[in-house]
Design a protein that fits this description.
- The protein is of the alpha+beta class.
- The protein folds into 2 domains: about 5-215, Fructose-1,6-Bisphosphatase, subunit A, domain 1 (Fructose-1,6-Bisphosphatase, Chain A, domain 1, 2-Layer Sandwich), CATH 3.30.540; about 220-355, D-Maltodextrin-Binding Protein, domain 2, CATH 3.40.190.80.
- Helix content is about 35%, strand content about 20%.
- It is built from 10 helices and 14 strands.
- The chain has helices at about 5-30, 45-60, 85-100, 120-125, 150, 225-230, 240-250, 265-270, 295-305, 335-355; strands at about 35, 45, 70, 140-145, 160-165, 170-180, 190-195, 200-205, 215, 230-235, 260, 275-280, 305-310, 330-335.
- Strands 3-4-5-6-7-8-9 form a 7-stranded mixed sheet, sandwiched between helices. A 5-stranded mixed sheet has the order 11-10-12-14-13, sandwiched between helices.
- A hairpin with a 6-residue loop joins strand 8 (about 200-205) and strand 9.
- The N and C termini lie far apart (about 60 Å).
- About 50% of the residues are buried.
- The structure holds adenosine-2'-5'-diphosphate and magnesium ion (3 copies).
- One magnesium ion (MG) binds next to strand 4.
């Protein structure tokens, strides 16, 4: 008998790999007018749209009844002023869908050479990501480029896909085209794929599918925290409070400065033993975290032996819709130290309140 979710895992890996090849090639060719600013002032590129079109196409072929909660929508692409951007997205998506990664691979999605998808079909496929989410049933959640700002600066970004069943993450696949394969060789080969299935562990492969490694977060004894732990945090101060993290770091007496990195690559690094803790605390602007920004990363961390919760110690709730509800931040770490980090977070929170 095959393992639970083995089909979903194969399809998700194929979809994420294909999107990573696309985003990688887009980065090298990206020109100025290929980026838009969304209503929330965040950037979105032809790469984000095309990657969502590719992954949604593959998911829709493989699992036609599964709804998708995806970050992007085609509305900004449909305006007359976006016509050249729109053509570029269609061209990139068709190119990526027809690219044979292995013999017969593209025909597995019913999209052989020459069988291009029309503009209308691909825009509609992007909008298959508009599902509202919720408590029950099967659904996918997709961030075609997580960390678009990192992507634009040539830093870390991730292609992130997760399968939720009754609001529990069952499968997570994250592609990190710019992440070094071996953390001890930061200038060495880049491009990693991270995969977790509930109850089946977490692993890292290269983007081309070689060199599998089982992931496990090393235990740190409480008395070693100050010397052995460092934080993984956002580059963008608007996404996560650097000042709050710095106070938590002081409370724990951490000797090492935080590592700043864009995207869910932070969860991937944590899962393979880097840093030791990921802290993301609200900046006070009322932002609600999105399920696609945490679903695959959270499973990767727990399957690698870590723990994740909000700053109150409550589990993240993926069943509330497209976002995680009121923002109490995210605290992820190895199981042995997550309670210590949470206690320091609570202390820093109380100090902040008493000052207010
Ligand atoms: N004010 C905010 N607070 C927290 N996260 C945010 C905020 N604004 C955007 N984001 C999201 O944070 C994620 C990147 O996180 P990180 O800083 O860890 O790289 C992105 O998905 C980004 O959304 P978007 O995709 O719209 O840019
Ligand atoms: Mg975005
Ligand atoms: Mg994101
Ligand atoms: Mg994104």
């Amino acid at each position: 008998m095959s393992a639970l979710y083995s089909n979903e895992k194969q399809v998700a890996i194929a979809a994420v790999r294909r999107a990573c090849i696309l985003t990688n090639s887009v980065f090298n060719k990206l020109v100025k007018n290929e980026t838009l600013t969304k209503d929330d002032k965040s950037p979105v590129t032809v790469g984000d749209y095309a990657a969502q079109a590719v992954i949604n196409t593959i998911l829709s072929k493989a699992f036609p009844d599964d709804p998708i909660v995806g970050e992007e929508s085609s509305s900004d692409l449909r305006t007359p002023s976006s016509s050249s951007l729109r053509s570029r997205v269609i061209e990139l998506a068709n190119e990526a869908l027809q690219h044979d990664l292995a013999p017969g691979d593209s025909s597995a999605w019913g999209i052989g050479p020459g069988a291009t998808q029309s503009e209308g079909q691909l825009l509609e496929t992007i909008d298959r990501g508009s599902f509202a989410g919720g408590k029950s049933g099967r659904m996918w959640t997709l961030d075609p480029i997580d960390g678009t700002k990192g992507f634009l600066r040539g830093g870390q970004y991730a292609v992130c896909l997760a399968l939720l069943v009754d609001s529990r993450v069952e499968l997570g696949v994250i592609g990190c085209p710019n992440l070094p394969v071996d953390p001890s060789k930061p200038d060495g080969a880049r491009g990693c794929l991270f995969i977790a299935v509930r109850g089946q562990g977490a692993e890292q492969l290269t983007l081309s599918g070689s060199d599998p490694k089982t992931l496990s977060i090393p235990a740190i004894a409480s008395e070693d925290i100050s010397n052995s732990l460092s934080f993984l945090e956002s580059v963008e101060a608007a996404h996560s409070s650097h000042g709050f993290n710095s106070r938590v770091s002081d409370i724990l007496g951490l000797a090492t400065s935080p590592v700043r990195m864009d995207s869910q690559a932070k969860y991937c690094c944590l899962a393979r033993g880097e840093g030791g803790a990921y802290l993301r605390m609200p900046t006070g602007a009322g932002y609600r975290e999105k399920i696609w920004d945490h679903a695959p990363g959270s499973l990767l961390v727990t399957e690698a032996g870590g723990a994740i919760s909000d700053s109150r110690g409550q589990p993240l709730d993926f069943g509330l819709g497209r976002d995680l509800g009121e923002n109490f931040g995210v605290v992820a770490a190895g199981k042995s130290v997550q309670a210590d980090v949470l206690a320091a977070v609570k202390k820093a929170g109380e100090e902040e309140k008493s000052k207010a």
